[in-house]
Amino acid sequence: MSPHPSPATTLPDEPRPAPPSRVLVLNSGSSSVKYQLLEMSDGSRLASGLVERIGERTSLVRHTPSAPGAEPRERTGPVADHEAALKAMAEELGADGLGLDSPELAAIGHRVVHGGMHFTEPTVVDEAVLSEIERLIPVAPLHNPANLTGIRTATALRPDLPQVAVFDTSFHTTMPEPAARYAIDVRTADEHRIRRYGFHGTSHAYVSRQTARLLGKAPEDVNVIVLHLGNGASASAVRGGRCVDTSMGLTPLEGLVMGTRSGDVDPAVIFHLTRVGGMSIDEIDTLLNKKSGLVGLCGDNDMREIRRRVDAGDEEAKLAFDIYIHRLKKYIGAYYAVLGRVDAVAFTAGVGENAAPVREAAVAGLAGLGLEVDAERNGARGTGPRLVSPEGARVAVAVVPTDEEMEIATQTYALVGKPN
Asked: What are the pLDDT digits (tens) for 306-344?
C-alpha cells in the first residue's frame, strides 16, 4: 500500500474568516461624547454621532448612519453620565446593525488630549497607561479626566476589546529641545513638567501627510506649515513628516488668536491683573481662556459673523480680524524661518477650510516668500484637498480638510487591527 494518501482523502484548506476591520473612535469631553465607526478595509464611515449635555434633563443624542437612504436621528431626554451616553450610542449603532457586540469590531480608539512626553505614539490601554494619563491631569484638567472616563466606560462595555489611546500631543514630541523648552529655571521646569507640548496633533499629522499627497510627494520629502484654524487654533512647522515646532505650549492657550483664547500674551499681564486689578487666578484663567481672543475683541467668535460685520463697516470687528491675521502672519513667517525651505502652507479646520478672506489676508504681502493665492481658486467652494495658489507658485497654498477621527482610527488599526 502506498504510504501517501490518495487525492480523494486530502481535505482542502478551510477558508479563514476575515479579520475584524472596524474601529470605533470615541472623543469624550466633560459633557459630551462624539463617536464615529469606520471600516478600515476601504476607509468608509459607517456611522457617526454625538451625545451632548450629559447630566442634564435636556441631553441630546444625535446619530447619523452612512447607509444609503438612511436618515439622521435625534432624541432628547436625560442622559445621566458617560456610561449612559455610551449605552445610548450602542443602542443607536445596534439599530443599524452595527452594535458594539459585532465580531467585526477590531478596537476602540480614544482621543486623549495630553500624553506628556511619556506617550509618543498610540498605546494599548492598561492600568499603567491609565495611571499615567491620570498623573497628567494637572496639566490638562479640562480634558484628561473626561478622556479617562470614556476609556473606562468603553472598557466596561467591551472588556475583551483592545482600547487604544491616541494622544493629541504625541505628534509634537519630535520637537527639538530648543523649540520645546521655555527659558525658565531648568530644575523648576523639570519638577513641574513645564515645557511646550502642543495640541491638535492628530490634525497636524493627518493634514501634513495629505498635503504631501496633494503635491504628489512622500511626506519625508515635504516641508509644510499647517494652520489648524477653528475655534481653537494652532500652527505647526513640519519637516519631512516630523513636527519641529508648534504654536500651542504647556496648554492650548499659547499661540494664535483663537475664538475665546488670547493666544500669546506677556506673562506679566497676569501679575498686573492680580496686583492692580484685584483679580483671582481663577478669574484670570477664565478671562484668558473663555473671554479673550475674538470674542474678547469684538463680542463674536464666529468668523462668518465677524466677516459680515467687517463688510458692513464695523470698525470693532475689523480690528479683531486684523489682530487675528497679524498674529497668524507672524507665525507663518517664523515657521518659514524655522524650516528654511517651505513647500506648502496648508489651511485646515472650520475657519481654515471655509474662510477665503482669512487665507487671502494671511498671505497678503508675502509674495516675496513665494506665498500668494489665486483669487478665483481661493474663492471657489470645494470639499476635498485643493490648491488655491496660482499655477506654478513657488510655495503651494492648500486647503486640506482635516479628519482627526480617521487619523485616530488609522493609528489604532495599525497598532492592533491588522492580522499577523
From this structure: 999 999 999 999 999 999 999 999 999 999 999 999 999
Work out the pLDDT band at 175, boundaries 50, 70, 90.
very high
Residue 15 burial (CB < 10 Å; 0-12/13-18/19+)?
Answer: exposed
Question: From the CB of residue 325, how many other CB atoms can be counted at a distance below 10 Å?
Answer: 18
CA distance 269 to 320: 19
Strands (E), 306-390: 344-348, 386-387
The grid coordinates listed for 129 are 497607561
Of 392, 393, 327, 386, whose CA–CA distance to 361 is shortest? 327
Angle between helices 315-339 and 303-311 (to 10 degrees): 120
Q: Could you report the per-residue pLDDT of 43-101, keeping only the tens digit for each?
A: 999 999 999 999 999 999 999 999 888 889 999 999 998 889 999 999 999 999 998 88
Q: Does residue 168 have an active-site annotation?
A: yes
Query: Which residue has cell 513640519?
Result: 238
Q: Could you give phi then psi for residue 17, rounded to 5 degrees?
A: -65, 145
Cα(274)–Cα(296) distance, rounded to whole angstroms? 19
Residue 97 in grid coordinates = 446593525
The angle, 0 to 180 degrees and rounded to 10, between the axes of the packed helices 82-95 and 144-157 is: 50
Measured CA to CA, the distance from residue 153 to residue 171 in angstroms comes to 26
Q: Are 176 and 186 in contact (CB under 8 A)?
A: no
The CA-based dihedral angle spanning residues 198, 203, 206, 208, taken in that order and rounded to the nearest 10 degrees: -60
Q: Where are the beta strands (DSSP E) in 199-294?
A: 223-229, 233-239, 242-246
- Amino acid, res. 274: T
The whole-angstrom separation of Cα 84 and Cα 172 is: 34
- Helix (H) / strand (E) containing 329: helix 315-339
Question: With 0-12 CB in 10 A as exposed, 13-18 as middle and 19+ as buried, what is 72?
Answer: exposed
Q: Out of 168, 245, 300, 403, pick the active-site residue.
A: 168
Contact (Cβ atoms closer than 8 angstroms) between residue 366 and residue 332: yes
